[in-house]
Amino acid sequence: MENSTEIVSFVLAMYGNMGQLKYLYFTLALLFYVSVILANTVIIIIIYMNRNLHEPMYLFLCSL
């Protein structure tokens, strides 16, 4: 007898069958993504407009 494992299939089933909830999840993820992009844009604009914030720490925040 050998000690072996045989993998027949591999299924990525993280989301599975969500039915009508997939639209809700997509909308929530899209709103979150847009809010993150908007917040980052506001931070970059504030750092760009205010001359006192042109320091390495704030420029590093812009590059993130």
From TrEMBL:
<keyword id="KW-0675">Receptor</keyword>
<keyword id="KW-0807">Transducer</keyword>
<keyword id="KW-0716">Sensory transduction</keyword>
<protein>
    <recommendedName>
        <fullName>G-protein coupled receptors family 1 profile domain-containing protein</fullName>
    </recommendedName>
</protein>
<dbReference type="GO" id="GO:0007608">
    <property type="term" value="P:sensory perception of smell"/>
</dbReference>
<keyword id="KW-0552">Olfaction</keyword>
<keyword id="KW-1003">Cell membrane</keyword>
<dbReference type="GO" id="GO:0004930">
    <property type="term" value="F:G protein-coupled receptor activity"/>
</dbReference>
<dbReference type="GO" id="GO:0005886">
    <property type="term" value="C:plasma membrane"/>
</dbReference>
<keyword id="KW-0297">G-protein coupled receptor</keyword>
<dbReference type="InterPro" id="IPR050516">
    <property type="entry name" value="Olfactory_GPCR"/>
</dbReference>
<keyword id="KW-0472">Membrane</keyword>
